[in-house]
Each structure stands twice: as structure tokens, then as C-alpha cells.
Amino acid sequence: MFAEEASGLLVRRERPELRYLGSTGSVDGVNLCVASPLGQSEATYWSKERGEPLEESVRQRLGWGDSLPVFLRHQSFFVRCGSSLLYRPGGYDFTSLPIDVNASEVEGGLLFTEIFQDDYFELNTMNPVLQELYTNLLKYWIAEVDIDGYRITAASHITADFSAYLSTHLRFYAAALGKENFFVVGEVNQATTPYGGSHIGRVQPGTGPATLPQKVQGTLEELCQYYSALPEQVPGFLSTYPLQEVYQLRDTCLGTGWNAMDLYQQPGAAKAVRKARDTLKAQGDMRLSMAAVEPAYCNLCLFQYRKMRDCNLCLGTSSGHGHRIPKGQTQSVCGLTKISSYFFRNSKHLRPSYVAKIAHGTSEADAKRQVKGAVSKTSKLKKQEAKMLKAKEKHEEEEEEEEEEEQQLH
């Protein structure tokens, strides 16, 4: 069983009682809380020792009511800087800043603001007590329901000291239960996450641990005795989810404007993929990218296609999604080739296997021959099975008639 950890980064308000007390903040207040050089969130992460707390004077206060379990009602468990919409370093929306020259500002927005919605409250994942508490919650489910791995959602929004702590201790605990191949994958968008490599594998870049945040350095020293005893002797996530590829496949399958080759040809997409793969390359282990886990001849696109087989996307007509394919032509769902509409219209049952072969580099002519040959062979086998079944049924009927005749004679 492989579980998805879907809410480890923040806590959503379920009742009105969980809220900020007093003002909900201001641009100046959020900027001071996130990226001030006076020792606030970003500076604490990079220059303060493990266990040293955040400066409280610049943070808002949360009111709990009865919305949270008692063990989570601690101000120090939450960052409390305010909405990401109010975080505007230098007067700019941090999401519009070039990552290459504004890494610190972008990282601060991803880690220390209410990034998704204003009623989601970001956890202070640098807090060692919270790290232990949360990790123990996930350990419980490993033992209780026999989980073999976790996918950590939105891992770009936790500090790298926590991702290392979480990955190492979950795998160490699982190994003690006999699960030596326990797997932890983090959803880290390497294309838009500054220092995304610090969440995966050996964590430290080629320049060594000295260039990591101080919090991460301290955590790695503490974790060394644990991850060194594991089959994969690395502290970070064992893999990172390939978001660019997945987004492109999803949009292609849904017919929302992507072409399969856009992943490599469109400047924005190509740059994102290149940045993600350069990050993995720097770690020295390309296995850190979980590119695909699908059966042979069935990638994600084809899996989605089976659900969309009736939408006419491949029939050369206007589809239910409002897209139109040129007359006399049709396009495979994966967008890898154009093939005759006649073949598709008259061979609907062949489409998934045909497109799969095209996707794997088989020429159109060879794909037609192989698929038709396979179908012909399957048809012959089915006919033989039907003939044998009919003969068996006839034989059983004859035996029953003989038994009835014998009973009448007696």
C-alpha cells in the first residue's frame, strides 16, 4: 500500500474559531515577518542553529477555539506571517520575480506565507517538536495499516530540514518493521522551487553542506546515524515527482491546448524541464526523478484516454471539449502522430494499443500490421475457444440423454 500525505504542510480552518486575532496583517508586516534581515523567518532558516525559535515580535497570534486538537494548539507550531498576497518584496509580487536572481525572496514566499488560501495556516516546519510530532503521526499509520510508502504533497512548501527529518525517520522506523524498501517521494516542483535539490537524495549540493541553511546543516548532523544505517544512505526524499511532465500529459489528454512535443519545444516548458533535470543531475542520481510507473504500452496519457474514448477527440470532428481536428486527419491522443481517420473510425477497439505502439517509436505501417495481426490472432483463439466450448456442451448434453435413457430402461 502506498499512501499520500495530503495535509502535512499546513492546517486549514474548519471552524471560524481558528483565525488570526486582531488585524490580518499588512504588506509591511508580512514583508518584515518573512524576509527581514533582522533575524525573521528566512534569516532564521539560513543563519540560526537548529532549535532556535522564530522571533515573536513580528508575528500575528492565532485564536484556536475548539478547531484543533489540543496537541496542536501552540503558537510556535505556526509561522503566522500572513497571506502570500501581502508579501511583496521590493513592491513586487514574489511569484513574478525571476528565481535565478531572487531565490531568497521567492523561497520566503513559498515557505513562510499562507500560500494557498488565507484560511490555510502555514506550519513552522523548522520547529523540532512539531517535526517529531508530525513524523510520529505518520509512523503510526505505517504500523496500523501496513503502508509501504508516502507521497508528500506540496513538499516545496516545507523547509528542507523537515523533509530530511521526515524522510529519514519514516524510513528508519519502517526498516525496524521489516520494510527495508519503504519509499518516500516528495512533490517538489524543481522548476519553480529555489534550492529544490536540498529536498532530495543526499540534500547537499556539489559545493558541500556549508552552502546549506544552518537549520539544514544541524539536522543532517543529527540524522547521520539514522540514514547511514539504511539501504539508501541519503537523508532526503528518495524521489521527486516530475510535475512538468505530469502537467503536460494531463493537459494533452484533456485536450486543453498542449501538443505532446510542446514539453520540449515550447520555451517555457522546455526551460522548466531542463531546470528540473539539471537539479537532479547535480545530485548525481537520475533515479531521483520518478518519471513514470505504468504497465508496458500504457503511459499516463493512454490511461486517461481510456476514460475519454467516447469524447470524439480522435475522430476528426469537433469534440465535446470544443477542439477541431483538420478534415481528413485525426491526431492520436498523445499528439505524437497523425493517422488516417478511416483507420480510426473503423477500428475503434484498436486505438489504445495502436497509439501505444506509435508512442514507443513504431512506424504507422508496422503498428497497423502488428495490431491487426494481434487482433487476428486473438480472433482465431476466440473462435477456437468458442468451438471447443460448443463441443463440450454438446458432449455434456449427449451424456445427459444417455443417463435419461438408462433410467427409463430401469
Automatic annotation (TrEMBL):
<feature type="compositionally biased region" description="Basic and acidic residues">
    <location>
        <begin position="382"/>
        <end position="395"/>
    </location>
</feature>
<feature type="region of interest" description="Disordered">
    <location>
        <begin position="365"/>
        <end position="410"/>
    </location>
</feature>
<dbReference type="InterPro" id="IPR017853">
    <property type="entry name" value="GH"/>
</dbReference>
<feature type="compositionally biased region" description="Acidic residues">
    <location>
        <begin position="396"/>
        <end position="410"/>
    </location>
</feature>
<protein>
    <submittedName>
        <fullName>Mok13 protein</fullName>
    </submittedName>
</protein>
